[in-house]
Write a structure and sequence with these properties.
Radius of gyration: 18 Å
Keywords: Membrane, Transmembrane, Transmembrane helix
Number of domains: 1
Distance between the termini: 7 Å
Structural class: mainly alpha
Helix content: over 70%
Order of helices and strands: HHH
Number of helices: 3
Number of strands: 0
Largest sheet: none
Length: about 90
């Protein structure tokens, strides 16, 4: 019994998508950390959290790496279930 059936095309595509999504998650996380490290506390308070819309957008940007990682895990689970049953 194989862990992942790499012989089917759909399983292989979902595995590649999962890897790409996980890589994108890491890049998004590094970008969020880099931006927040370079910002002043006062500037962040005055600009990024000045309106409710900006607060929501900031929270979505902060949550992007986690959402991307969840999509990666779902792609991997979908690719695993598409394989032929033994």
């Amino acid at each position: 019994m194989n862990l992942l059936p790499y012989t089917t095309l759909a399983s292989y595509i979902f595995s590649i998508l999962s890897f790409v999504q996980a890589l994108g998650s890491m890049l998004a996380g590094v970008a969020v950390i880099a931006v927040y490290e370079s910002c002043d506390r006062e500037w962040t308070l005055k600009v990024l959290t000045s309106t409710r819309f900006r607060v929501c957008c900031t929270l979505v940007i902060i949550a992007t790496p986690s959402i991307s990682l969840v999509v990666s895990i779902l792609c991997l689970m979908t690719g695993e279930t598409l394989g032929p049953s033994a």
